[in-house]
Amino acid sequence: MSFEVDNSMVMRCVAYKNGISQGDVTIEDISEVLKEPDTFVWLGLHEADSHLLLKVQEEFGLHELAIEDACNAHQQPKIEEYDSSVFMVLHTAALTETSVAFGETHVFAGKRFVVTVRHGSLLDHRKIRASCEAKPDHLAKGPGFVLYAIMDFIVDNYVPVIEGLQARFEVLESAIFANHPSRRTMEELYQLKRELLQLHNAIMPVIDMCNELTRFHSDIIPKDMNNYFRDIADHIRRIDQTLHGLREMLISAMQVHLTFETVRQNEVVKGLAGWGAILAIPTMVFSLYGMNFKYMPELEWQYSYPTVLSLVVVGSVLLYLHLKRSGWL
What average pLDDT does range 194-200 have in this prediction? Predict the structure, then answer.
C-alpha cells in the first residue's frame, strides 16, 4: 500500500549518531536508517492523521493499539508499554488572554527512536530539539535524554501558566472587595477553579510516569538518567503545592464572595421590611376609615382629617428615624 505523506504534519525527522545530527530523514527511509549502529531517529509530528500514523507504525514497528490512541486527541495522561517501546500521553498547558489552552503530546519511545505527536498544543518543540543538539554529550545517551527533555520542557511551561492564574486570581480578589458582588465575578472564579483542577489532573500522573520509566524501562532510560526523571517528579510536587495553596485561597475568596452577596441580600430584605413597617401605619389607619361604618365619632369632627393625617405623618417619620438609627434603612 502506498502512502502520500503530508509534509505540513511532519515538523522534523532527524537521525542522530553518537549525539550528532546526521541530517533530515524522509519517513520512507526511517526503517533503513534504524539499521545503522549507534543511531536513533527523532520524529516530530503535528496533528497527524491516521494515514501518516499508519506509515509511521510501519517504519518503527509500533503497536496498533498505541497508534489508535495517537489518532484520538482526547486521551488521559498515561504511560503504556508495548513490546519494546512505551507510549505516553502528556497534557500541555499554555496561557492565553482569557483562559488556559490545554493540549496533548503523545510520545512513542524505543531504544532507537522517539516520535512525538502534538494535538492542539501551543508549545513548539523546536526549542527542545535545538537545546538537545547543543548538548551532544547528553544527546549521545539516546532516546532517554530526548524523552527527558520533552517532559522537562512541558513541565517547565506549567510554571508561567500558574503565575498567570495567580495574577488573574489577584485581580478577582481585588474586585470582590472593591466592588459589589457580581455574577460575572463568580463565573470567573468558577472558571479559574475548573482550570486549576484540569491543571492538577494534567500534572500529577507525570510523577507515576517518571517512576515507571526509571524502574522498568532501563533499556530506554540509561541508569545515569534516573536522577533527571526524579528531578521532574520533584518539580511536579512543588508545582502541585503551589496549586494547592492557590486552590485554598480561591475557595476562601468564593466563600467571601458568597458572604458579601448574602449580606447584600440581607440589607435589601431589611430595607424592604423597614419600609413595609412604615407603610403599615397609614395602611392600618386608612383601612380603618374605609370600613364605611355609619357611626364613627371622628367623622363629625371638623379637625378629624388633619389630625389623623398629622398622626400618620408623625408616626411614619418617627418610625423611619428609629429604623434609620438601627441600620435597617
Answer: 92
The amino acid at 314? V
Mean pLDDT of 72-90: 89
- Helix or strand holding residue 117 (H, E): strand 113-119
Handedness of CA 252, 257, 261, 264 (dihedral sign): positive
Q: Where are the domains of the chain?
A: 1-140, 265-326
pTM of the prediction? 0.78
Residue 169 sits at φ, ψ, to 5 deg, of -65, -40
Q: How far apart are CA 210 and CA 272, in angstroms?
A: 62
The three-state secondary structure class of 327 is coil
Does 81 have pLDDT greater than 70?
yes
| Top CATH class, 265-326 | mainly alpha
DSSP per-residue string spanning 6-43: -GGGEEEEEEEETTEEEEE--GGGHHHHTTSTTEEEEE
Residue 144: which residues within 8 A CB-CB, separation 6 or more?
Answer: 109, 220, 221, 222, 225
| Per-residue pLDDT reduced to its tens digit, 57-69 | 999 989 998 888 8
Closest Cα to residue 104, out of 71, 140, 131? 71
- Cell 500529577 locates to 204
d(CA 253, CA 248): 9
Separation of alpha carbons 265 and 159, rounded Å: 40
- The three-class DSSP label of residue 79 is strand
Indicate the class that CATH gives domain 1-140.
alpha beta
The three three-digit cell numbers of residue 284, written as one number: 392600618
